[in-house]
Amino acid sequence: MAARSRPNILVTGTPGTGKSTFSAALSEATNLRHINIGELVKEKNLHDGWDDDFNCYIINEDLVCDELEDMMEEGGNIVDYHGCDFFPERWFDRVVVLQTENSVLFDRLSRRGYTGSKLSNNIECEIFQVLLEEAKESYREDIVVALKNDTVDEMNTNVATLADWTSSWSPMLT
Ligand SMILES: Nc1ncnc2c1ncn2[C@@H]1O[C@H](COP(=O)(O)OP(=O)(O)O)[C@@H](O)[C@H]1O
């Protein structure tokens, strides 16, 4: 298998931590391709139906991985999803876990219309750093970075950091 010429970055974190906004800005800064898994699942029907309890599609992880394999092999992707343990480890050169203060996250998710257990489950997910633990269990610790993402200034700094990392990345480094 030929080495990819551009890196693949996974952007993960609790819903509302700013993955899609950050990934879009990073894509603009680097020309890497932004793949929003939630949208891809909907668009290509990579699911096993609708979950009434959680009000979302039941993602079919095998179909998602099959769909992405060629693009990931080619490289140059930013994958944006609130889960990270089902992707092949070999796909990623950097795993970014976005984190947000609880009060900030509460406001963002309330504005999105989340209430009740959907809201509290996501706040708990952030308090217990579920995605950071999942990332550390699924990938080499030295490629996992946790970044605070409460404000636009922080996001801009995070984008600049990752854009610098991307421009100095070389396949020889993997
Ligand atoms: N760094 C930030 N500072 C302030 N607001 C942000 C920031 N990142 C995202 N937001 C806002 O928070 C909300 C959730 O962001 P989004 O990117 O959709 O999160 P996710 O993809 O993780 O669910 C959106 O309204 C977005 O405009």
From TrEMBL:
<feature type="binding site">
    <location>
        <position position="18"/>
    </location>
    <ligand>
        <name>ATP</name>
    </ligand>
</feature>
<comment type="similarity">
    <text>Belongs to the adenylate kinase family. AK6 subfamily.</text>
</comment>
<dbReference type="GO" id="GO:0005524">
    <property type="term" value="F:ATP binding"/>
</dbReference>
<keyword id="KW-0698">rRNA processing</keyword>
<dbReference type="GO" id="GO:0004017">
    <property type="term" value="F:AMP kinase activity"/>
</dbReference>
<dbReference type="GO" id="GO:0042274">
    <property type="term" value="P:ribosomal small subunit biogenesis"/>
</dbReference>
<keyword id="KW-0963">Cytoplasm</keyword>
<dbReference type="GO" id="GO:0005737">
    <property type="term" value="C:cytoplasm"/>
</dbReference>
<dbReference type="GO" id="GO:0005634">
    <property type="term" value="C:nucleus"/>
</dbReference>
<feature type="binding site">
    <location>
        <position position="20"/>
    </location>
    <ligand>
        <name>ATP</name>
    </ligand>
</feature>
<feature type="binding site">
    <location>
        <position position="19"/>
    </location>
    <ligand>
        <name>ATP</name>
    </ligand>
</feature>
<dbReference type="InterPro" id="IPR027417">
    <property type="entry name" value="P-loop_NTPase"/>
</dbReference>
<protein>
    <recommendedName>
        <fullName>Adenylate kinase isoenzyme 6 homolog</fullName>
        <ecNumber>2.7.4.3</ecNumber>
    </recommendedName>
</protein>
<feature type="binding site">
    <location>
        <position position="16"/>
    </location>
    <ligand>
        <name>ATP</name>
    </ligand>
</feature>
<feature type="region of interest" description="LID">
    <location>
        <begin position="111"/>
        <end position="121"/>
    </location>
</feature>
<comment type="subunit">
    <text>Interacts with small ribosomal subunit protein uS11. Not a structural component of 43S pre-ribosomes, but transiently interacts with them by binding to uS11.</text>
</comment>
<keyword id="KW-0547">Nucleotide-binding</keyword>
<keyword id="KW-0418">Kinase</keyword>
<comment type="function">
    <text>Broad-specificity nucleoside monophosphate (NMP) kinase that catalyzes the reversible transfer of the terminal phosphate group between nucleoside triphosphates and monophosphates. Has also ATPase activity. Involved in the late cytoplasmic maturation steps of the 40S ribosomal particles, specifically 18S rRNA maturation. While NMP activity is not required for ribosome maturation, ATPase activity is. Associates transiently with small ribosomal subunit protein uS11. ATP hydrolysis breaks the interaction with uS11.</text>
</comment>
<dbReference type="Pfam" id="PF13238">
    <property type="entry name" value="AAA_18"/>
</dbReference>
<dbReference type="GO" id="GO:0006364">
    <property type="term" value="P:rRNA processing"/>
</dbReference>
<keyword id="KW-0808">Transferase</keyword>
<keyword id="KW-0539">Nucleus</keyword>
<keyword id="KW-0067">ATP-binding</keyword>
<feature type="binding site">
    <location>
        <position position="112"/>
    </location>
    <ligand>
        <name>ATP</name>
    </ligand>
</feature>
<feature type="binding site">
    <location>
        <position position="21"/>
    </location>
    <ligand>
        <name>ATP</name>
    </ligand>
</feature>
<feature type="region of interest" description="NMPbind">
    <location>
        <begin position="36"/>
        <end position="59"/>
    </location>
</feature>
<dbReference type="InterPro" id="IPR020618">
    <property type="entry name" value="Adenyl_kinase_AK6"/>
</dbReference>
<dbReference type="GO" id="GO:0016887">
    <property type="term" value="F:ATP hydrolysis activity"/>
</dbReference>
<keyword id="KW-0690">Ribosome biogenesis</keyword>
